[in-house]
Amino acid sequence: MAEFMDRYTYRVSWSEEDQEHVGLCVEFPSLSWLENTPEQALVGIRTLVRETVEDMQANDEAVPEPLAVRSYSGKFMVRVPPETHRSLVIQAAEAGVSLNRLVASRLH
Q1: The domain containing residue 16 runs over which residues?
Q2: Are residues 22 and 59 in the same domain?
Q3: What residues are paired with 34 via a beta bridge?
Q4: Does 59 lie in the same domain as 82?
């Protein structure tokens, strides 16, 4: 698991509520770290994630796999209201493209 530590998805942003920078890790949504600078917040969340992973391993708990190393099929299903579906089909037909191509182009 040590090789995964640098592959987790980290983010640092400003917390207006706390008046500090907050470090976050997508794979561990319950963890956060507050600091005065973005650099300190990143170091803090990375340290907290490492300690959490070590604790999970010591307790034989499943450790989240980094998003960056997961395989993705490129397919997912989106449910929309029938009216939206109809509107998209019409727009695709008018543009002379498939519904899939129209929706995929709008997701970029």
Answers
A1: 2-68
A2: yes
A3: 22
A4: no
Which tokens go with 76? 């997912």
If one counts the domains in the chain, the total is: 2
Instruction: Please compute the mean of the pLDDT values over residues 101-105 and round it to a whole number.
Output: 95
pLDDT at 2 (0 to 100): 58
For the domain that residue 39 is a member of, what is the CATH number? 3.30.160
**For residue 65, pLDDT beyond 80:** yes
Residues 9 and 48 in one domain: yes
User: How far, in Å, CA of 80 to CA of 63, rounded?
Assistant: 34
Compute how many other C-beta atoms are within 10 angstroms of the C-beta atom of residue 58.
8
Question: DSSP label at 61?
Answer: P
CA angle 76, 81, 83 (to 5 degrees): 125
Q: pTM score, two decimals? A: 0.74
